[in-house]
Amino acid sequence: MQTVEPIRDRLLIEEMKQELRKTSERNYFLFVMGINTGLRISDLLPLQVKDVRNQTHITLKETKTRKNKRFLLNAELRGIIADYIRDKEDDDYLFPSHKTDLPLQRVQAYKVLNQAAKTVGIQNFGTHSLRKTFGFWHYTMNRNVALLQDIFNHSSPEITLRYIGINQDIVDQSLEHFSL
Description:
Elements: H1 10-23, H2 25-37, H3 41-44, H4 49-52, E1 57-61, E2 68-72, H5 75-85, H6 106-120, H7 128-142, H8 145-152, H9 157-163, H10 166-176
Antiparallel strand pairs: 1-2
Helix pairs in contact: 1-2, 1-6, 2-5, 2-7, 8-9
């Protein structure tokens, strides 16, 4: 089984945004929400407009852990949200299916995101790459594994570092110039 990876290149993140925006604003917004909140796809897809309209935080019960989660929406993301939901009703899903009155299904979200990833040359990509990308960049910017561990509700720093692919990066760097 292939392990999905975070997107470690900011240029590829921008290319993904542009590629997704070509197909639909919903797909672009799903990607942006995912990489800026670190929420699992199973927690993103059922969100409704009322969950984010005029909000500074998303409050939800995580599908996987059943734990309550309160997550800050950064100022830039709040602006993107405001534009995206401007003409939407409170009960509308943020990520509606084009075929039903329900939210986009996980499989369809994967297809849409994975197609864009292939187009821009990203490998080892899946819906979980959004959460991992958030984690990788949060750690890269803040260097605080304990904080990220708390955000992700992981039981140890080692799990968090392995999850975002930092352990392997550190191992690879340590071996790059190691020679006897």
